[in-house]
Amino acid sequence: MNPLKTSDTQVESASTGFRSWLEGQILGSHPLIERVRQTILRAASRLCPVLIYGETGTGKDLSAQAIHRGSARGRKPPVVVVAGALGETAWSILFGHRKGSFTGAMDDRPGLFDLAHDSSLLIEDVSDLPLRLQPMLLRAIEHGLFRALGAGQESRSNARVIASSNRCLLGEIDEGRFRNDLFARLSVMKLEMPPLREHLEDLKIYVPHFLAKVALSPHPPKTLSDGALNVLAEYSWPRNVRELEHVLHRASIETDQDEIGSDTFTALLRHAPTEARRVRPGRTILAIDAVLLRRTLEASRWNKREAARRLGIAPNTLYRLVEWHGIDPPRTWSLERRFGVDSI
């Protein structure tokens, strides 16, 4: 038997199984959601860092877990940390410490990079990482080297870092709160989680899924009237899919009938901010995708300052977005600018 051929078959079988599992986890039929699944599949087949960005409640954590599960390291559990919760002990938690390195350090303790060796380190809210630790994180990612607090020598770890953020790191760089070199290293692969308001067609998939999830056995899941679905479709879901799940859970508890009517959701959502009760056409910086950016640049005749004004963002942020999305001006525009035909 050819061992190489057997290995190829096993890998293909594992890949097919993961794809099927992924379709049951990242739900939705909209092209934006299919793009998310395809990016997860590509990220899972590599071991480079990944940056996942999107608004609160869009499924960043689930996607990070999926990337790890589908990777060659998926048999080991990932190590998860919320950067905003690290506090003053951030160095010790991430990189470990040695006995006597600070008051209360009674023995040597491994850090998360030690624990994530041969696995993945999932850093949630990476934008909250203290600025003083960002060079250390960069070195750990680039060279696999880090120094425990109080240690005389560096240690090694091959932990793969998958980071997520609900804030635009490009804006954080402009404000001096995040290092550009760390951002470049984290974003070798990028995954954008779209807000629910941009794929409301998927409500028809999410609603029965969440209602079945909260149904109490042996009772069948509740259903929604057409009017109730319309109420949900007119709301902009500022906290996205997570908010939808919570609202459906409350509605199923507060309704005695098998069908949930529109009045139930009207009552549940009446305390929401006015701007959240309708679908907002605008986008956050996080959701300025390549298509919107290119269209705005074209409408502005590739004047980046004008494009930034139209998008309502700082020029420096726009420059970084252009670099992020890899957008180049058309050749005719470059020639016009070179020969002074157009002053842009």
Describe the structure.
This protein folds into 3 domains: 24-193, 3-Layer(aba) Sandwich (Rossmann fold); 196-277, Helicase, Ruva Protein, domain 3; 288-338, Arc Repressor Mutant, subunit A (Orthogonal Bundle), CATH 1.10.10. 47% of the residues lie in helices and 10% in strands. It is built from 16 helices and 9 strands. A 5-stranded parallel sheet has the order 2-3-6-1-7. A hairpin with an 8-residue loop joins strand 4 (145-146) and strand 5 (155-156). It is globular. The protein starts with a helix and ends in a 6-residue tail after the last helix. The model is unreliable at 1-13, 277-283 and 333-344 (pLDDT under 50).
- The helicity comes to 40-55%
- The total tally of domains equals 3
Main beta sheet:
5 strands, parallel
What is the CATH fold-level name of the largest domain? Rossmann fold
- The gross shape turns out to be globular
- According to CATH, what is the class of the largest domain? Alpha Beta
The CATH superfamily name of the largest domain is P-loop containing nucleotide triphosphate hydrolases
Task: Give me the secondary-structure topology.
Blueprint: H1 3-25, H2 31-44, E1 50-54, H3 60-70, E2 79-82, H4 90-95, H5 112-115, E3 120-124, H6 134-143, E4 145-146, E5 155-156, E6 160-165, H7 169-174, H8 180-186, E7 189-193, H9 203-214, E8 223-224, H10 226-233, H11 240-254, E9 259-260, H12 262-269, H13 290-299, H14 304-311, H15 315-325, H16 331-338
Parallel strand pairs: 1-6, 1-7, 2-3, 3-6, 8-9
Antiparallel strand pairs: 4-5
Helix pairs in contact: 1-3, 2-3, 6-8, 9-11, 10-12, 11-12, 13-14, 14-15
